[in-house]
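In response to reviewer comment 3 from the previous cycle, which asked for concrete evidence that the modeling workflow produces usable outputs, we include below a single protein chain processed end to end. The sequence was submitted unchanged, and the resulting structure tokens are shown without manual editing.
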Amino acid sequence: MGISDAPQKSFTPYKPKKGEEYMSEPQKNHFRHILNAWRDELGAEMDRARHRMQDETVNYPDPTDRATQESEMTLELRTRDRERKLIRKIEETLDQIDAGEYGYCESCGAEIGLRRLEARPTATLCIDCKSLAEIRERQMG
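The workflow returned the following structure tokens.
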């Protein structure tokens, strides 16, 4: 069980009504629901992992077994750290919804789009700006 980079597809895609304004209250509520469910799912997984790590901690006499256990624990802790950061990002995104800033590209101000936000609800860049950022990253990195 690892970190998921997007919420589970347990929601119905939003179908805007004819003439509905972008980021209307029903759309904001749709994304609040997705983000809250995702945060709750990650929190539950973190709790399960914490209990699993506490239950599975054994002092193996064999150095190889100890090394394997330490390696698994390190990987588990790294995953939990990523989940903690993702939960923080989800909470920041919920704050953006409340502030009326959600759904718009932080670089160019364009609408990010409902489908992109459903695929990655914490997206802060439109697809064009994200593509340009990735190209720049590859050229510099």
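The chain has a mean pLDDT of 90. We consider this sufficient to address the reviewer's concern, and the full set will be provided in the supplementary archive.
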